[in-house]
Amino acid sequence: MSTSGTKVVLPPAPGLLLHPVFDVGATVMSLGFRVEQEQENRLVSKPVYVVSDGRVIKAYGENEERGIAGQPLRYRDGGPLPVLDAQWPREDFVAFMADPRCPNGSVLYESLAGKLRTHVEFDDYGKYVIVACWIVLTYVYPLFAAVPFLHVIGPKGTGKTQLLEVLEQLVRNAHRASITRALTGDMTEYQRPTFITDQVDHLPGDLTDTLAASYRQGARRSVTNTDNRKEPLTFETFGPKALAGTEALPVDLRDRAIVITTVPAHGVLGPVEPRDPECDQLRGNCYAWTLCSFWNLPPLVETMRRTSGSPLLRGVWPGLDSYVGRQHEIWLPMEVMMEALRVPDADRQAARDYYGRSQTATRAEIREDYADLLLVLLRLAGHNATLEITSTRLLEELPDDEDEKDRALWTVLRVGVALKALNVLKENQRTTERHKRRYVIDGDAVRSLVERYGLATK
Known about the structure:
40% of the residues lie in helices and 18% in strands. The protein has 458 residues and is of the alpha/beta class.
């Protein structure tokens, strides 16, 4: 068979192109900061880039040619660099660059867990382990195919906000604000922050979809380009997020998160002070540790992924043996961080036990009465996005409990409680008639729950 035509010669593929704020791969890690100083009675800022291959660590100014181990480095467009003094105490940074040393992993872990215990009371020690390791994960997360969200959940007055305040001062490049779809894309694309958000009990559907996808590497969103409608603007959304609220997350977001429940403290724990010096030092230690140690993580990730997926190698990483699919995907980074930080075996087991219990609760069989309610809602909603129904009509459609001695009688109050617990209720309004309510049900949430619990096959 013969071919004819012009020979196509492609140019060389582009070289390594780094994000100017933060990037980390198998062989290179890069951080960008703004260094502010006074000049002629005004404040000016100049960029500084820190580059590491794990063994050699260098800093470069604005116009210097940047490279590491003979490899030239280029940076793509990005947003404003974080201020160095807000991320890493200047004196500590200068000392580190003069003599790049860092605490070993176990010391860093113990320091972070100790700081958490100073300001937050958990009812399970495994939560301290998970949160401390998740903090360090925010400094290396691009090395993973997926990163778990933290979902801090509990009644008001149980210390959720206080925990978020500690996280804000310890994670890498924290951004605390109410999340929107636009903000998630823009901020992630240009600044690669760690999002910290309170009061996430009522997320809109489009934001839920964006967040649900953003736990995985490569997640992006597209928006209309007003300057060129033929070519939409695309933004990355992948990155770590800590979310807090009093209710369970929407179903499609729930299994991307590690749930950290909060309870009332037995004593009074003081809140973390703004610009807490201990937090500043710990944050600098996290930067130092990751610049010195990041290159150890990719082989560890690959080893855990390979061995935990083999029936012949079960027990090598016992924390991963019982998980498959998404649960394995979001727990693997925690196992990697516990190994890299040399977390003591007892602490690792506490973290594994807590996560296992939380996942068992998530996978538990749904209550029979809630299953009845979901199947009725599925039949009435069909493929519609929403279902509007009164409490009277819904009670008529529910199974007659008189023949089921082990089930309580349905009432308007009990239906309302069940709908809230299942997280399928979009609106709940009183009507003009006494003891009668009008519900707006989320059809997508109903269908997702039915599929999740396998009710359609029962």
